[in-house]
Amino acid sequence: MSQVLDVSGAVLVLLGCLLSLVAGIGLVRLPDLLTRMHAATKPQVLGLVLVTGGLALVLRDGSTTMLLGLVVVAQLLTIPVASHMVARASWRGGQVRHDLLDVDELTGSATLQEDRGAP
């Protein structure tokens, strides 16, 4: 049973590392701010969950597993909020390419400040 858990943990760590690599490639290759933010948040958080799950399977220690769970919960709570705040500040700063948006729900509710630089 120990070998099965070790192999499963190694596979999860490898998959998590691959997802983090895909997130890094997306940050370099994608054309605009909003798609780069998507690449920075979605696969990276899933990669982190897979890596911590793999570590929990390999280490099999209660206190370490609780700490890894706390890391995952903290990331799942903070990444969406941080991503939303960066997107809103970038939209207000005029750094979003409006020609790439299908729907722009902020046009009537937020003010665009052309004279401001990066937030």
TrEMBL record:
The lineage of its organism: Bacteria, Bacillati, Actinomycetota, Actinomycetes, Propionibacteriales. This is Multisubunit sodium/proton antiporter MrpG subunit. Keywords: Membrane, Transmembrane, Transmembrane helix. InterPro entries: PhaG_MnhG_YufB. The keyword Ribonucleoprotein does not apply. NCBIfam families: CPA3_mnhG_phaG (TIGR01300), PRK12674.1-2 (NF009314). The chain crosses the membrane at residues 12-31, 66-87. Belongs to the CPA3 antiporters (TC 2.A.63) subunit G family. Signal peptide: none annotated. It comes from Nocardioides aurantiacus. One of its GO terms (molecular function) is sodium:proton antiporter activity.
